[in-house]
From TrEMBL:
Family: Belongs to the CpoB family.
Descriptive protein name: Cell division coordinator CpoB
Native species: Herbaspirillum robiniae
Keywords on record: Cell cycle, Cell division, Coiled coil, Periplasm, Signal
Positions of the YbgF trimerisation domain: 57-116
Length: 251
């Protein structure tokens, strides 16, 4: 733009110089008519050439300016595209991390949700901590730690009184006490099983354990009565069959 302006200024100056020059030459009589016309034509030719040169340079300058601007814009567009790609990648990664987080959270929550399990022939809902506490207590009993098992089953019953494992927990607590020769304690616990869970499959075994505890306490009459009740209520159970064998030994 500055170059075109300068060239245009030069053109104007040339025209003014030519306009001033012609009258002076005419007045001085230095040229005749033909020479004057030739001089005018020559000046006009130079002016036209100068104008073409100015226009050409102006056009070139404009083209160069537009080209530079286009290159600059292309560079900016390329930079923006790069930023867009980076942001798009970050968004995609963030979405994937969020998805993984929710999948992991859902899996963790599902682990904490009560699970449907079979306990004594019934389907019950049991929470993970509840299941773990019961399994730990039973593992202690199987490992011969009867005192620890008795305490663990006692704690379980206090923490989960409505658990589907409640009847089994009390039954195994009674057996743990029996193994420690706490026969009175065993009788009390097993009687709770018989009273509170009359339809539970563990009742027959609880009655057999009560009779065994009574026999250990030398209360044969009580043991005999308990065995007779066991055989009458649950005649087709393995506990009843065992009760029959023991009953004959008490006579």
């Amino acid at each position: 733009m500055h170059t075109a302006f300068k060239l245009k200024s030069v053109t104007v100056a040339a025209l003014l110089a030519a306009a001033a020059f012609l009258p002076l030459t005419a007045r001085a009589g230095l040229f005749d008519d033909d020479e004057a016309r030739k001089a005018i034509l020559d000046i006009r030719s130079k002016i036209e050439a100068l104008q073409r040169d100015v226009a050409t340079k102006a056009d070139k300058n404009s083209v160069l300016t537009l080209s530079d601007r286009n290159d600059n814009l292309q560079s900016q567009i390329a930079a923006l595209r790069g930023q867009i790609e980076v942001l798009t990648n970050e968004i995609t990664n963030a979405q994937q991390r969020q998805k993984d987080f929710y999948v992991d959270l859902d899996a963790r929550l599902r682990k904490l949700e009560p699970q449907q399990v079979q306990v004594d022939g019934q389907t019950v809902a049991v929470g993970i901590p509840e299941q773990q506490a019961y399994d730990a207590a039973l593992s202690q009993f199987k490992g011969g730690d009867y005192k620890g098992a008795a305490n663990a089953f006692g704690d379980f019953i206090k923490r989960y009184p409505q658990s589907g494992y409640a009847a089994s927990a009390q039954y195994w607590q009674g057996n743990s006490l029996y193994a420690q020769r706490d026969y009175k304690g065993a009788i009390a616990v097993q009687q709770n099983v018989v009273k509170n869970y009359p339809d539970n499959p563990k009742v027959a075994d609880a009655m057999l354990n009560i009779a065994s505890s009574q026999a250990e306490l030398k209360d044969k009459a009580a043991a005999k009565k308990t065995l007779e009740q066991l055989i009458a209520k649950f005649p087709n159970t393995p506990a009843a069959q065992t009760g029959k064998d023991r009953l004959s030994s008490l006579k």
